[in-house]
Design goal:
With 569 residues, the protein is of the alpha+beta class. The protein is built from 12 helices and 26 strands.
């Protein structure tokens, strides 16, 4: 069996070796044939089986973090060759022509694929909103080799500065991408809103659009604030979209949706193979605007399919287990964080547990904002008390959104479940005849697992980037530099710390000198058995870096007063 391994090339006498880069392993002797210009210090992909390993391709220098990130995608199987395919011609017959409607996309600065666009217009004393989603189902017929490959991949995988797409670039970046000033085939959700912005009956159909402008989050916010100009029609549509989105968000939280914001980690590279900086990016106002309109479209599609008892891939976030919520309240109380009132354990039903969890999230948000304590640790406690979101053929409800029905419909370029939902919707509308898969339950389990796998790869890549950046910072500051941190997690063998705003590391219990530390019954603190010293979740702690393992993205810490001066880079 041939295995592909990411290695760092090294010379041993006359032999060229490949030393496994991400996981320990025996160095591989490379066949000299096909080596070309590869040299020691390169990061490369090799195929190993019987005999000597063969060089497949060079990724770059091993001291270039961009090559390492590509190596992560290869090593974890996210970077693959696409199946043979032929793109069908764009289909315009029978589509609703919306090309004259003022339309725009809003995405991050670095986005390359644009699978959703928005239009909003006045209608009497109310509004009418259109959410246009790339008609990927037209370009990827069910059952074709490309469709089977997309099903296997299930998701695009994003690491800093690059992506392993679910679909080939000619689709993801071109034919299905809603780029400005070009005609594109879409599936549109149209919703009227009355004078008080109460929603009317949604409409669904295949459409033809032409986006007027590709907005970034920053440009959209500048237009809304009056700092930049846009075409009058686009500026008005954007302002109306903002008004609608704010009302949709207000109603969502009023009905009991969870209010937990988790900032995204962003990176900038120095152009020389290193990481220049990292920062936590709070949700831009323009992102919230788009998110609410996408939630509206997802709920509308799910409502139609669920209302007609049709199977699809619904996005499921089941109500939390009552015992998990009661444990959450006990932990928060033990940490002196305000908690909401709750029924007695024997009377706490799942519906009550969902409301209590939402109320706890709201109180935690207020407390951490006011006290500046536990900003990382306490929201994470709430999230761990909830069930993990997944996909299911049945509409079991998204508790976190407090919706009656929800599915993923708005990103078929990068999520296979959305493509399945498109096919289910189009079949229901009589606009296509492709059935949903017979083994929908197995597919739901598969895409749920693939979503977790993609998230794990993305987390690993972030950790590697942070380890590279931390090493560079310590080269400037010195290894004795002390950092202010917050205890974000606890296990019997030590504690996890967020420090320097973005970095994370682990303090082994063996470095907590002077006592033997044990987890308290609620696992909210490590307490010394003899002296009673305590390290609690959410508490501040001053640390030094003891060790960095860049290939793993792991950082070992020590309390500042006891820092171990040994380190590796």
């Amino acid at each position: 069996m041939v295995e592909h391994v990411v290695v760092e090339l090294a010379k041993r006498g006359k032999l060229l070796l490949g030393e496994p880069y991400f996981t320990p392993g025996t160095p591989l002797v490379l066949d000299r044939k096909g080596v070309g210009d590869a040299r020691p210090g390169d990061l490369a992909v090799v195929s190993s089986g019987r005999g000597r390993a063969r060089l497949e391709r060079v990724l770059g220098r091993a001291d270039d973090v961009r090559a390492v990130l590509e190596g992560v995608l290869v090593q974890e199987g996210a970077r693959v060759e696409f199946e043979p395919h032929r793109l069908p011609e764009p289909f315009t017959e029978g589509r609703t022509d919306l090309r004259e409607l003022p339309t725009f996309t809003i995405d991050p600065e670095t986005a390359k694929d644009f699978d959703d666009a928005v239009s909003v217009a006045r209608e009497g004393e109310g509004l009418r909103a259109w959410v246009h989603i790339a008609d990927v189902a037209w370009f990827v017929p069910a059952g074709t080799p490309l469709d089977r490959g997309a099903s296997g991949r299930a998701f695009s995988t994003y690491v800093p500065g690059r992506v392993a797409p679910m679909l080939p670039p000619e689709l993801a970046d071109d034919a299905c991408s809603l780029r400005p000033h070009v005609e594109r085939s879409c599936v549109t959700v149209e919703v009227p809103f009355g004078p008080g912005l109460e929603p009317g009956e949604p409409l669904f159909y295949r459409s033809l659009i032409r986006s007027d402008e590709r907005l970034t989050y920053g440009r959209a916010e500048a237009i809304l604030a009056g700092r930049e100009r846009a075409e009058p029609a686009v500026a008005e549509a954007l302002a109306l979209a903002e008004r609608l989105a704010l009302e949709l968000r207000r109603r969502r939280f009023a009905r009991g949706a969870l209010r937990i914001q988790t900032p995204e980690l962003a990176f900038a590279f120095d152009g020389e193979g290193g990481v220049e900086r990292a920062w936590l990016e709070s949700e831009p106002h323009a992102h919230a605007l788009v998110e609410e309109l996408m939630i509206m479209a997802n709920e509308a599609v799910a409502g139609l399919l669920a209302g007609r008892r049709r199977e699809a891939l619904f996005r499921v976030h089941e109500r939390p287990d009552p015992q998990a919520v009661l444990l959450l309240l006990s932990k928060l109380a033990d940490l002196e964080v305000p908690t909401p009132p709750a029924p007695e354990a024997e009377r706490l039903r799942p519906a009550d547990a969902a409301r209590v969890a939402a109320a706890a999230a709201e109180l935690v948000s207020r407390y951490t904002s006011r006290s500046r304590r536990g900003r990382e640790a306490f929201p994470a406690l709430v999230l761990r008390a909830l069930k993990r979101a997944r996909y299911d053929p049945a509409n079991l409800g998204p508790s976190g959104l407090a919706s009656t029905a929800y599915c993923h419909f708005t990103s078929p370029i990068r999520r296979y479940p959305d493509l399945v939902v498109h096919r289910a919707l189009l079949r229901e509308l009589g606009a296509a005849d492709e059935p949903v898969p017979d083994d929908l339950g197995a597919l739901a389990a598969h895409v749920s697992e693939r979503e977790r796998a993609a998230a794990a790869i993305e987390y690993q890549a972030d950790e590697i980037c942070l380890a590279w950046l931390l090493g560079a910072r310590l080269f400037e500051l010195g290894w004795e530099h002390e950092w202010e941190g917050e205890i974000t997690g606890l296990i019997g063998s030590g504690l996890f710390v967020r420090f320097g705003e973005v970095f994370e590391g682990f303090v082994p219990a063996r470095r907590l000198a002077g006592d033997y530390y044990e987890l308290t019954p609620l696992a909210t603190a490590l307490r010394g058995r003899r002296g009673g010293g305590i390290f609690r979740l959410g508490d501040g702690i001053r640390v030094r870096v003891a060790d960095i393992r860049r290939t793993e993205g792991k950082v070992e810490l020590a309390p500042a007063a006891q820092s171990d001066r040994r380190r590796r880079t």
